[in-house]
Amino acid sequence: MARIALKFDEMVDSVALRRQLAALHQDHSDPRPKVLSLLKETVASGHKRAQDMLALDGGGTVCARRLSYLMDEIICALADYAARYVYSVQNPSSGERIAVGAVGGYGRGTLAPGSDIDLLFVLPYKRTAWSEQIIEYVLYMLWDLGLKVGHATRSVEECLRLSRDDMTIRTAILEARFIWGEETLFADMVRRFDEEIVSNTGPEFAQAKLVERDQRHRKAGESRYLVEPNVKDGKGGLRDLHTLFWIGKYVYRVRRGEDLIGKVFTRGEYNLFRKAEDFLWAVRCHMHFLTGKGEERLSFDLQSEIAARLGYTTHPGLSAVERFMKHYFLVAKDVGDLTRIFCSALEEEHASETSGFNRLIMGFSRRRRKLAGTSDFIIDNYRINVAAQDVFSKDPINLIRLFWFADRHGLEYHPDAFKLLTRSLHLVDRTLRRNPEANELFLDVLTSNRNPELNLRRMNETGLLGKFIPDFGKIVAMMQFNMYHHYTVDEHLLRCVGVLAEIEHGEGEAVHPLSHKLMPDLANQRTLIYVAVLLHDIAKGRPEDHSTAGARVARRICPLLGLSDQDTETVAWLIENHLLMSMTAQTRDLNDRKTIEDFARAVQSIDRLKLLLILTVCDIRGVGPGVWNGWKGQLLRTLYFETELVLSGGFSHASRDQRAKAARAALENALDAWPEQEKQRYTTLPYTNYLLTVSLEDQVRHAEFIRAADEKKLRLATMVRAMTFEAVTEITILAPDHPRLLSIIAGACSAADANIVDAQIFTTSDGRALDVILINREFDRDEDETRRAERVGKLIEQVLSGNAYLPEIIEKRRASKKPSKTFTVKSRIDVRNTISERFSVIDVRGLDRPGLLSAITGTLSDLSLDIASAHITTFGEKVIDTFYVTDLMGHKVTNESRIKAIREALLDVLESNGQGRREKSVQAANS
Fold this sequence. Notes:
With 927 residues, the chain is of the alpha+beta class. Among the domains are: 8-198, Beta Polymerase, domain 2, CATH 3.30.460.10; 204-357, Four Helix Bundle (Hemerythrin (Met), subunit A) (Up-down Bundle), CATH 1.20.120.330; 469-647, Hypothetical protein af1432, CATH 1.10.3210; 818-927, Alpha-Beta Plaits, CATH 3.30.70.260. The protein has 41 helices and 16 strands. Helix 11 (267-291) crosses helix 13 (320-350). It is globular and about 110 Å long. The N and C termini lie far apart (69 Å). It holds the Pfam family NTP_transf_2.
């Protein structure tokens, strides 16, 4: 890493600052406001210079040191001013001595713009009136400057006593650095701390710090590949590097990071440590400067700006922000590698000292024994380790065997083995990648019936997985810049393998019972599904469609893994079509016969259908928390069973009229207990489409709902049902039919912050509408969710009855929820007439915003289109909404001029380009 000039003298003119403070004291008026104003100006100008220099030289660590120097000079000048002018004493006693030290991150001599200023005021033995006055003056002035100041005032004895029992205090004093006052007093504390506290307590401190690190990771997020990482406290962040330095400083009794070379790190590894630290400091400082506060989460809205500040540019397949975030995650991975190397050295140094320390590093007492079936590996403290330092160089296949033996014997990994493996990655070449035994061993690890995710993850963390399969290496640490995906691409793939193993083990059956039921049927094809799950997103980040490119990659990799031509082609087909089932289930009308027939034609066989279902479930569940829900599972089950009927020859070929007649008869039979006159009336209300698409159970519920509303003479009525397993809530609306009805309902739901995921629109023979909408569930308890849905239903009734003004409500919500400027989604409108026999299908894709669905459905009504069903899908910030429509005569829209006008009107809604164009498009479509 190139050295960058510190330029401390450009941060603040210390001599001039002290001279100005002294001059202010000569003023007979109260100088405090002027002192405060001067210091505020000094802080602001210093931060401005630091930000400018960061933009010029890019040095993150240097920026943090400059800011620390700035604060040092301000505190020194302020304390000098307080002691000389505000509370001066002519002949100070021995007790009237004080030392001010920086502790925590500030003690290391590094500060981010929004960091806390942690100070330790050290006294000889007890507080005096003078020392309290000085301390209070300094603290209150710093607080008035708007700084976050953490502080403690203690005697030397108190510092030592408290640090014995409190690891946080012990860590703070470990980092303590003298700033101002009696330096001999401060040096005495540091010396006694080293002799009385640090000496012979290294393992105890290391154990406490690593346990603390694990707890911090659980709080900030276990994965280092979260797409909005915490730069300070997250896994692979700055605090992990600081933890290593704290332990190294404490255990090896060193003062500088360079002193760990030879004890823990090689020169190259220490340089990697410094590069990672410098990059993370640069990102953190930019974040603080950009937000004007101590923001530690690298959120989506910051990533693009910081990518630009750091000079990243767009390359084919990857945007500038995605390239920046890939670099970030690679650095986080380097931090993980350094942690393993550090722990390995630490354990070797102290393995014989305490069993507690060994347990900390995942072992117990120091026991070594042979590992059955090999002389190259041993069991060391219940972990697999190398038997000699030439294990990998003499036979590179051992790089894969390490993981194979660990899986076979259920062993964790010794850090020494990982350290040697990481340093031996250069041995992975074309010969090893094409070696049949190496590929067979890798396939065994991937398809293990134990814990394949764990061992693949370890393989990925060491860098071996990306070296052995170079196409996988291209997506390591690759981020997809959207709100839908929670993890990097490689992390997503590994989590999908974990989900597949969970399904195979019969765990989590309640989440998606069908996939668990089908898995045993695929025993002879389990290798295919594991390979497909690992590789399905392997071509992300390329200019072409990743599904098509991924299939091509699979056709190259699978033969190396030993798969036959037929199996290779099945895996390639699964990868090429891995989004087909999800998109069909979520964006198409599954009650439309042609949807099922087209999907069955694409799938071709029941075996492929089973494999594709399980791949789809793994893919959705591996995206991140909260993405999978029971409603998506229900859609997939419906699509599976309907397609299975077609593929097995069981799909009904009876005419539509015959099936409608049978359905109406079934409804009459279900209402047999009703009075004959009422039964006849209510069974004639539904049209054919309703009878063929709604289950008999729901038809009966709806009939009872309409009957109850009629008895109460209600023109408007709503009925709610919390669907626990599907994780959605159903609201049924009965109202006079109206072209803009769905638009009004959608607007009311938007105003109530209820997201519609599906909608079925029906009319009755007496001119009423019976609309069934499904909204995302918000509460776990059915009672709470039902009350919430009833409130949404009441708002819908109020809007439909004219007692609430919808545009005003939506505008308020839109104002409270600012539209995202972080993401851009290209708007697209497709009008298709080949997807359904009876309807034109309009696909709308664009950037989500409050009230969008209401605006779209309102425009469709203005275009004189009847909506038969709507399927609303949200992928983070992107919406894909599908509408099955006809013209007012019940026919498809086939006129090209009208289709063009529909596209223009809907694009105008998505892009919000003005009312005039929309009105012109609507007029053209209706002409």
